[in-house]
Amino acid sequence: MSLTVPPALLDAAESGPVDDAEFVTCVRDSLPYAWQLVTRVVDDLRASEVDFADNVVPPPSEAERGQLLRALASDAIRGALERHFAVKLAFQNCHRVAAFRLSAVGSEAYQRFISTRGQLLNQSPELRDC
Fold it and tell me: Which of 62, 63, 103, 125 is the most exposed place for a label (fewest CB within 10 A)?
């Protein structure tokens, strides 16, 4: 299961739209490694003048890798994180997460990161099982 949903949040979802802040709290509490990694990448971005910041360190275990994959493979979770942090997230392999400034979406750096060429150049034998 991707998220541990509190009963009150599940009740709210069953009766209508859910507040983004409540959903983000659920994500933060359910996927702590993914939350911490995205937060760190966003903090790195905000502390600089560059268009993006990324993570190149693989997760310490399969459990953490699973959290990251669940967070970034879900349109709802990824979208909520992007709205919460006001960034565009991009993802390669099982661990390379980048946070782009919204003004950089469409930039050369962004296009290079999300390109098939960028994906291929980010491959290595160590990452083939992720």
Answer: 125
d(CA 27, CA 75): 13
pLDDT tens per residue, range 7-50: 999 999 999 999 999 999 999 999 999 999 999 999 999 999 99
Burial (Cβ within 10 Å: 0-12, 13-18, ≥19) of residue 109: middle
Instruction: Supply the pTM of this predicted model.
Output: 0.88
Give the C-alpha distances (Å, rounded to integers) separating 36 from 15, 43, 58, 72, 126: 31, 10, 14, 13, 23
**Sequence letter at residue 42:** V
pLDDT digits (tens, 9 = 90+) for 84-103: 999 999 998 777 899 999 99
User: In angstroms, rounded to a whole number, what is the distance separating the alpha carbons of residues 87 and 102?
Assistant: 5
